[in-house]
Design a protein that fits this description.
Two copies of one chain form a homodimer. Chain A has about 450 residues and is α+β, with helices and mostly antiparallel strands. Chain A has 14 helices and 21 strands. The model of chain A has no long low-confidence stretch (mean pLDDT about 95). The interface between A and B is medium-sized, with 13 and 13 residues. Chains A, B: Belongs to the aromatic-ring hydroxylase family. KMO subfamily.
Chain lengths: ~450, ~450
C-alpha cells in the first residue's frame, strides 16, 4: 500500500477503468472522468472492432483477480478461418494445445468493468468534459464547452487514459522537448453485422477469427456471446477497391457478390448497415515523454495509439498498467521514479507493437491468401513443436507470452531472415518436414 | 493579375512578409498579423542564428526585384573556415568561381523587408494575437488571451506563415487525416558574440562561415555588417560535453580554453553572454496536408520546420512562395487547384531538405575535422571541375541550383555510394587526382 493520494483518471474506457481498480486497491481515492455518457446507459455505436484479449491482457486482469469474471463474457478463438475468393476455407491455428485469444465485445466488456470498478469504490463522473490540465499542480479544467466557463479540480496525480485524441497529452504536447506524431492510415473501416441464427447459435464457426483476405482490402469477423458476429471491412478510402467507389447500393451488392460471395447468406443487412454506419479512420500516434514530474502520466492509447491488426491495443494498454504497478511495488511512494521508470520501460515496447501492428495488415489482407506464406507458417509450427526450446513463432511471442514486445520484434525479424533462406530451398513444398530442413534451421540459428 | 481577394497572412517573419509582397503585387488586399510587437521598434533578442541566403532565396527575391536591395545588407561567404583544436585552420570552398552564400542578420533582414512590404501597400497589424481559425470560412479569431474574449476577422483566404508552432496549423491538426510530427533534437544552441574591432572591421575573416568542429558539439560564426559576428554554440543538453555540464563560470572558461582556445581573443563577453542568453531548442516539424480547400494554406516553417545545419530554413520557405506563384500563373483564379498543386509539389522537397539538414549536423560538427572527408570533397571538386556535365557536388545542387531538393538528395546518395568505393582505393590519398581515379568514377557513373 502507498501513502493515499487523490487521483483523477481521465477516460472511462478499458484502460482507464482497469487502472482505477488497481489504484483503488492501493488505497487511493480515485475519480474517473469521462466526457461521454455512462456507456451502461446508451446503445453502443456501430463503429467498433471486436477486441481480442490475449496473454498480456489476462495477466493484468488476473493480478487483480478479475480474469474469471471477464472470461465469462469472452469467446475463445484458436485459429484464423481464411475464406478464399473461390469459396475454399483454410484454417491456421494460432498456437499449440488449444492456445486461444478471446473475442470480446467492446461495449459489453467496458460496461462490466465499470460495474466492477464501482463495486471497488471507484467514483465515476460521466458527461464531465475535461478541456485542459495544469501539469505542475495536477489541476483539471472542466466545463461545458471549450470556449465557455471552466472550473478547477485539484488532484495529487492525474492519469490521462483519454485515448488517441487525449486532451491531457494535448497540453503536454505544447511543451518544449515533447516529441509527437500522428499518422492517419490510407485504410479506413466499417462495421458490418452477422446476426445469430433464430435459435441463438452462430452462423459460422464461433472459435475462429474469420478473414476474407483480398490484397489491399479485407473483411474480418469475430464472434459475440449472443450468437452474432461483429464484422469489419478494412479498405482504402480512395483508389481501386475503395470506400470511395462503393457509392450506391448496386455497386456495393455487386462488389460483395464478386469478392465475398459466401457472405451473402450471413450478412442480411449489408446495404442498410453499410450506408448507416460511418467509415472510420485509423490513426497511429506516438509521443514522448509520457509523464510530467510526479504529477501526470499518460497510459494506453493516450500514449501509444496503434492500428488494430495485431489485436493488441487493449493488451498493450493493460500491460502499461502491469508495468506501472511493478514500478510501484519497486519504488513505493517515489512517484517521480515510478513515472520515469514506467515510461522508459514502456516506450520501446509501445513502438515495437506499433510496428508489428502496422505490418500485420499485409499479413492478414494478403499473405494469408498466399500458399507460400501458409507453408512457411506450417514449417515454423512443425519446427517449433519439435524444438520448443529453439523456436517460438512471432505470433506466439506477441500473443501467448509476456516477452517484451521489442524483444519479440527483434527475434521475429531474425527468424524471418532464416525462414527466407529455408523457403528458397529447392522443392521445399515437398521436403518441408525433412531432416534436411530441420538441420538447415538449426544451422542458421547458430 | 488575379481576381482581387481579401487575404490575411498570419506571421510577419521573413516568409510571411515576402509572401505579402507577392500577394500585393497580384492586386490583393493583404493584411499581415503578428502576435509580437513590430520588430523595427524593439531590440532583437539574443537567440538567433544568422541566416544564409542562397540561390533559392535569391530567386524568390529577384522575381519581385528585391534582390539588389537585400544584397546590400548581406556579406558573401564563399567557404568554410575550419578551426581545429590544435589551432590549425583549414578552408573548404563551397562552390566554384567565387560562388557564395550571403550571411544576413535575421533582425536586420526582417526589418528591411517589412519596410519594403509597407512601401508596396501591405498593412501590418502587430501585437494582434490570432488564437484560432475557422477553416471553412477563413475566419480568424483574435483576442488578448487564449481564454479571454475573441473577435472574428473575415477573409477570403488565410495564409499561416506563423512558424514552427503555428496556431493555424494547430487547428488543421485537429482534423481527421491530418498527419503531423514534431521532434525535438537532443542538441540545443546558444548565441554568443564576436564584437567588431574599434575601427569597425571584422576580427576574423568575414567571408567565411567559421566552424569549430568538436564531434558531438560545435561552435560556428557568421559575419554581420557592423563588423561583429553572431556565434552559435551547438551542443547536447545532457551528457558528456553538454549545456548541463557548463553550470558555472570556472567550468565554462576551462571548457572554452580547452576546446576553443583561439576564441579567447575574440569573444570577450563569453561568460556574461553565456549565462544571459537562453539555451534554445531545435525542433523538426512535418505535416500534411498544408492546405484546406481554397481557404487556408500553410507556408514556411509552419508547414516544414527544419534544423538549421544546411542554412536552408529561409531558402526553403522562400521557394514555397516561388512554387505557389508558379501555380498561380498556371491556374489563375482556381485556388483549389493552386493550393493542391502547391502542397503536392512542395511536400517531397520539404521532406528532403529536412533530411539533408539533419544529416548536415554530423558533417559540420564531425566530418569537417576528418582528413578523409576533406579528401573526398577535394576529389569531388576536382572531378566536377573536369566534368561539370557529369558531377555537381550535393552542396552545390542544394545551395547553388534550383534543382528540387528531393532530386538533389537522391543524386547525392548515389554520388556518395560512388565516393565510398573511390575512397577504398589503395593509396587514394596519393593518387586522388590520377587518371585511374577519374576513370573509376566515370565507370561507376555508368
Amino acid at each position: 500500500m502507498q501513502i493515499p493520494q487523490k487521483i483523477a483518471v481521465v477516460g472511462s474506457g478499458l484502460v482507464g477503468t482497469l487502472l482505477a481498480i488497481y489504484l483503488k486497491r492501493q488505497g487511493h481515492t480515485v475519480h474517473v472522468y469521462d466526457r461521454s455518457p455512462d456507456i451502461r446507459t446508451v446503445e453502443f455505436s456501430g463503429r467498433s472492432i471486436n477486441l481480442v484479449m490475449s496473454h498480456r491482457g489476462w495477466k493484468a486482469m488476473s493480478d487483480v483477480g478479475l480474469d474469471d469474471e471477464i472470461r465469462k463474457i469472452g469467446i475463445p478463438v484458436d485459429k484464423r478461418a481464411i475464406h478464399l475468393q473461390d469459396g475454399k476455407l483454410n484454417y491456421q491455428y494460432y498456437g499449440k494445445d488449444g492456445e486461444a485469444i478471446f473475442s470480446l465485445s467492446r461495449g459489453v466488456l467496458n460496461r462490466r468493468m465499470i460495474d466492477l470498478a464501482e463495486a471497488e469504490g471507484v467514483e465515476f463522473f460521466f458527461n464531465h468534459k475535461i478541456w485542459d490540465v495544469t501539469l505542475a499542480t495536477a489541476t483539471l479544467h472542466i466545463g461545458e464547452s471549450e470556449r465557455g466557463e471552466w472550473t478547477e479540480l485539484h488532484y495529487d496525480k492525474v492519469f490521462g487514459a483519454d485515448g488517441a485524441f487525449s486532451r491531457i497529452r494535448h497540453r503536454m504536447q505544447r511543451q518544449s522537448m515533447f516529441d509527437y506524431s500522428q499518422e492517419f492510415m490510407k485504410i479506413g473501416y466499417k462495421e458490418l453485422h452477422i446476426p445469430a441464427n433464430p435459435d441463438g447459435t452462430h452462423k459460422i464457426d464461433q472459435n475462429s477469427l474469420h478473414i476474407w483476405p483480398r490484397g489491399n482490402f479485407m473483411l474480418m469477423a469475430l464472434a459475440n456471446l449472443d450468437g452474432s458476429f461483429t464484422c469489419t471491412l478494412f479498405m482504402p478510402f480512395e483508389g481501386e477497391n475503395s470506400f470511395e467507389q462503393l457509392k450506391d447500393e448496386a455497386t456495393l451488392v455487386d462488389f460483395f457478390a464478386h469478392y465475398f460471395p459466401d457472405t451473402a447468406a450471413v450478412i442480411p443487412d449489408l446495404v442498410e448497415d453499410f450506408f448507416k454506419n460511418p467509415t472510420s479512420y485509423l490513426v497511429m500516434m506516438k509521443c514522448f515523454p509520457w509523464t510530467f514530474e510526479d504529477k501526470v502520466a499518460l497510459i494506453g492509447d493516450a500514449s501509444h495509439a496503434i492500428v488494430p491488426f495485431y489485436g493488441h491495443g487493449m493488451n498493450a494498454g493493460f500491460e502499461d498498467i502491469t508495468v506501472l504497478f511493478e514500478m510501484i511495488s519497486k519504488y513505493g511512494d517515489d512517484w517521480k521514479t515510478i513515472f520515469s521508470e514506467y515510461e522508459q520501460s514502456r516506450k520501446p515496447n509501445a513502438d515495437a507493437i506499433a510496428e508489428l501492428s502496422r505490418r500485420n495488415f499485409i499479413e492478414m489482407s494478403t499473405k494469408t491468401a498466399d500458399s507460400n506464406f501458409l507453408l512457411q507458417k506450417k514449417i515454423e509450427k512443425w519446427f517449433s513443436d519439435k524444438h520448443p526450446d529453439k523456436w517460438m513463432p512471432l505470433y506466439s511471442r506477441v500473443t501467448f507470452s509476456l516477452q517484451p514486445y521489442s524483444e519479440a520484434l527483434a527475434i521475429g525479424d531474425f527468424q524471418n531472415k532464416i525462414m527466407e533462406e529455408v523457403m528458397q530451398m529447392p522443392n521445399i513444398e515437398e521436403k518441408w518436414n525433412s531432416v534436411e530442413v530441420e538441420n538447415k534451421i538449426i544451422d542458421l540459428l547458430k
